[in-house]
Amino acid sequence: MLSNVLLGVPALPDSLKVDGRELFGRMMRSPEFDPYILSAIHKLRETKRFRIVALTNNYSAQYERIRDTPPSQQGEHKFSPEAELEFLGWGESTGGPAGVGIRALFDDFVDSSVVGSRKPEPAIYQYACKANGVSPEEVVFLDDLGLNLKTAQKLGMRTIHVPIGGSREAVQQLQQLLGIQLLDSEIRSPNLRSEGRSKL
Known about the structure:
By secondary structure, the protein is mainly alpha-helical. It has helices at 4-7, 20-28, 35-47, 61-67, 81-88, 112-115, 122-131, 146-154, 167-178, 192-195, and strands at residues 53-56, 108-111, 140-143, 158-161. The longest helix is centred in the first third of the chain and has 13 residues, at 35-47.
């Protein structure tokens, strides 16, 4: 059997520490935004008929440790919902597409690390509905994961799957469901299949 040294393969570390919060934060702060979803959000907001709510899972272990630490001992990592939104690139001061803060695109931002429940647990969906004064039957829920969609369906929400590289088709389904033109013909198709998930 050939050893890793003979093959020129570096040895694997004995342990690997991954900071889930930082990893998720880097993904969320990415400058890449899905143009189809972004266009749909803008057009829905223009109608003034809908509430646009972001429902996101976040990593809570570190938040809980920071939150439970006395402020005098928190150092630079002081916990607050506002600070976490800034960390994720969703804060009011964070610049985004068209010169607006990403957070400003939404009427509400439901963060699992703040709420204490995460998708696909029913509680976070129910919390979002109650906080925004709607019933599940009034909601159209879009997500890229089937597990998250199944819970929404069980609660009575209409759902649309947004697979990687399939955001245009998802927005087409949404505009058919709502009877509103959400797609612009001049939007260039992003190469999302090769780049992975988009943020919005």
